[in-house]
Every structure is written in C-alpha cells, then in structure tokens.
Amino acid sequence: MSMDLLEELTLARGVSGYEGEVRQILLRELKQTASKIVTDRMGSIFGEKEGTAPSPRILLAGHMDEVGFMVKEITKNGYLRFATLGGWWEQVLLAQRVSVVTENRTFTGVIGSKPPHILTAEERKKVYPLREMFVDVGAKSDEQVKEWGIRVGDPIIPVCPFEILPDGDTILAKALDNRIGCYMALEILKELGKVDHPNTVIAGATVQEEVGLRGAATSPHAVEPDIAFVLDVGIAEDGPGSEGSGKSRLGGGPLVTFLDATMIPHLRLRDRVMEVAEDLKIPIQMETMTGGGTDAGKIHLFRRGVPSLVVGVAARYIHSHVSMVSKDDVRQTVRLLVEVIRRLDQQEMEGLVRYTEGG
C-alpha cells in the first residue's frame, strides 16, 4: 500500500462543504482504475468498475470531509470568531494551529482564548467555552484582515503533519476520519483490478458526513447500489484507563460495527463478512456504539433498502487535530473486503434479501 497517497489525502484541506482538494485527488486516482466516474449534485464522487457481471452493484463509500471550522465573525481588533463544522470537544482546541483558507492565499493561525493567568479560580476548573475562543492570525485590525482577503465563510482547517511512528505501524495524521475510508476505497478498487469479480463495484466517497450524513442521502440516487460497505473509523479503547476485554484497539484487525445510533447492520451481510474473515484467518473487532453514526445510516434506507455494513479500523483521538490508526489494520481491511467482493455474485445477493423462505 502506498503511504504517499494516504499522506496526500490527509494533508488535503477538506472540511465539510469544502471538500474540493480531496475530490481532485480521488478523481485523479479513480480515473486510473474505473471505467466510469459518477457524481451527485453535492460533490460526492465514485468510480464504477464492472467485473464479469453487471450486478449486484456494490458500493464502497468513505467520506471526504474532516471536522473543522468556518469564519463567522471578524472582530474590530482583527481576531476571527468561528463556527464548528462537525463535532468538537472544547478541551482539545486551545493553542492548536489552524489554516485559514481564502480564495487566493492560506493563513496560519492559532486558536486562542483569554489567558489562564487572568481567569478566576472558578473559571480554571471548567472546560473553556468554545463561544469565547477565537483564531489569531496576527492581524492588528478588522481592516487588515479584510485587506488580506479573509472573509466570513472561509474554511478553517486543523494543522498536523503526517508521520509513521517508530513501530513502523502506527500512522499519525489529521483527518484520518475519514481519509482512511477514502484511501481504502481506492485500494480495494485497485486490488479488484487484478482479479475477476462477479459484480460491479462503485468506489469513492461522500461529502458532508460530519454535519449530518448529507452526501449519503443524495449519492445513492446517483450510484443506485444493491449492497453497501461504508468504510470509516471506529473508536479505539486501548488507552490507559479504558482498555479491557473486548475493547477495540490499534492492531487488533478490521472493525465491524454491530450497532450504532443510526443503523442495525444487515445481519446476513454481517455474518457473511464474518465467515470470510474466519476463512482468511483475519481477526475481527466488533463495535457497538449507542451514540453517533456513519453514512450507512442514510444509505441503508435508500428505496426498498440497501443491505449495508460499516467496516473500518479503530482510531485514537478522532475529532481533534490529530489521530492514529494501524497500518496493518488498514491492510487487513482491504484484504478482507476484496475477498468478500470476489465471492459476492447475484445468487448470493438474492439470498441476502430473500425473506419469503423463513430465517
């Protein structure tokens, strides 16, 4: 697997609604492996590759957007007030670097607040409220900010370099939620180009997942899937104080979601993936999450229903400036789904959705 491609994807600036840089990378890569490019009118993009049969149509969907911010106000003294795009915990924001992206230039800034030295004792005990934070780009006035070309509505992107840590397996970067899903979709499509598969695969990514699964609501109308695999990250629970039996961890293998707030997975499809994993001797981690969801929450409700499953990797520190995943988990997830798709023909598809013979 090319880590150069993953690095490029994570460094691309693509908060919700501003995914253009990520889309261009996907377009370039999909043109090399797909016979047809499909988009919706929101900006989601997919490459279609027909195997030895036109159906079933199997969707592999990551999402392009990362959590970030938008300029919502420029103060008289030249500071930028911001709105969040996606879910943030205030405690991870202060003193972090960001990029403010304008039409013609990018500005480096830092998320600031009232200095702790002048907070009251009671204020220091609390999580500092996001509404009082701002981005400091070094401007002296609102006029200077406007002269530089910064406007209300400009996106603000977290800053973090890409790095493989000394164990050779742990990837550290921003936006692994969910550039890792984009990356796996591309890698699976490349691997399927080397083998026969009795179906048509549509691989790519949606937009605006972090702000309400919005691209997932529109993209099925463009790609018309019969089956969907949503490729995303889950929560690693292997840090001090949270590790325990059955908790997902980096290096523990692909992560299959058995429950989240938006979907109970298609049980027959889930069990089929588990069977293939057992055949390949790939360890599987199981996630149940009562809060939060993925694009599968919208996709599985398309028309008469789309059998769907969320398959991905455990990640640390998501929805912050930095996150971590295991390279081996990514490799095993790609290997698993390639083999699942190689076995998934029209007859098996019909068996998954037949409800007139019991079971």
Could you explain the architecture of this structure?
- The strands form three sheets. The protein has an eight-stranded mixed beta sheet, sandwiched between helices. Strands 5-4-9-6-7-8 form a six-stranded antiparallel beta sheet, with no helix packed on it. Strands 10-11-17 form a three-stranded antiparallel beta sheet.
- Helix content is 29%, strand content 26%.
- It has two domains: 3-66 and 174-353, Aminopeptidase; 69-158, Elongation Factor Tu (Ef-tu), domain 3 (Beta Barrel), CATH 2.40.30.40.
- With 359 residues, it is α+β, with helices and mostly antiparallel strands.
Strands of the largest sheet, in order across it?
A: 1-2-12-3-13-16-14-15
* Radius of gyration, in angstroms, nearest whole number: 21 Å
Principal-axis shape equals globular
- Number of individual domains: 2
CATH class of the largest domain: Alpha Beta
Blueprint (SSEs and pairs):
Elements: H1 3-11, H2 20-33, E1 36-39, E2 45-50, E3 57-63, E4 68-74, E5 80-85, E6 97-101, E7 106-112, H3 121-124, E8 134-136, H4 142-148, E9 155-158, E10 163-164, E11 170-173, H5 176-192, E12 200-206, H6 214-223, E13 227-235, E14 255-259, H7 267-280, E15 285-288, H8 296-299, E16 308-315, E17 323-326, H9 327-343, H10 346-353
Parallel strand pairs: 3-12, 3-13, 13-16, 14-15
Antiparallel strand pairs: 1-2, 2-12, 4-5, 4-9, 6-7, 6-9, 7-8, 10-11, 11-17, 14-16
Helix pairs in contact: 1-5, 2-5, 5-9, 7-9
